[in-house]
Design a protein that fits this description.
Helix content is 24%, strand content 30%. By secondary structure, the protein is α+β, with helices and mostly antiparallel strands. The longest helix is centred in the last third of the chain and has 14 residues. It is globular.
Amino acid sequence: MTTTTMQAELIGDDELAYLRSRTALVAGAGMALDDGYRLAHLPLIDPHHPKAIARKDGTHYENGRHPSIYSLVVPTLGLQEAPAYRELEQALRDAPFASKIAWDIVARRQAKLHATVCGSLSVGAPPTINQAARDALSRLGPVEMELRGLFSGNVNRGRLYLRLYPERRDGQNALHLMQRALGRPTSDLYVVGIWNLSEDLDAAEAAVLAAILDRWWDRPTLRFTADRLWLMGASDDLVLDSEIVETISLK
């Protein structure tokens, strides 16, 4: 990944899923961690938390862990050095719910931050990416992208993200071109999960979060050119136990 001064056209909110996927924060109400978060994330933060869900019928989660899942992702290394990112993180550290953010998890994940392009390519063993797909990615070349945030979604409520906006390439979403190159369905939501809550928010705390979300919605955090992808395997949704199987160049 390299920072860039290019000004390629980016895909906008009218073609992405961020607006319709936001957490519905209601004035005067708090924000509770949802069941999906309590199953997949909270056991990794605090396995003894009274609201953590250790396992659930029909899922592979066991205290937040599961068989290794392999995905193709865009790395966002260097984000922590961006002035806007530091400003946003300071706003979170100054918020009344700062003590409810698992800052140790943030520190442990810094070298693994990413947005998923093609999730769940395989389970248990790395997938085979054929030469035709590799050639298509190489022909696509480096792709300009921009991170904006803060974002809280309507699933995994309790995790806070940055939103990724990809370049429009030949009239199309460049990430759709990557997904089609691998024969995968296209998607319209690409988030970088960074901050995790350890507790529900009360009404006053939720109001502050809502204000931060609104204030940062249109603010760029980092504009960069992605020149590589990672094939990443992980046995938990926070990629605490993960490996980068391969780096795939977009050059």
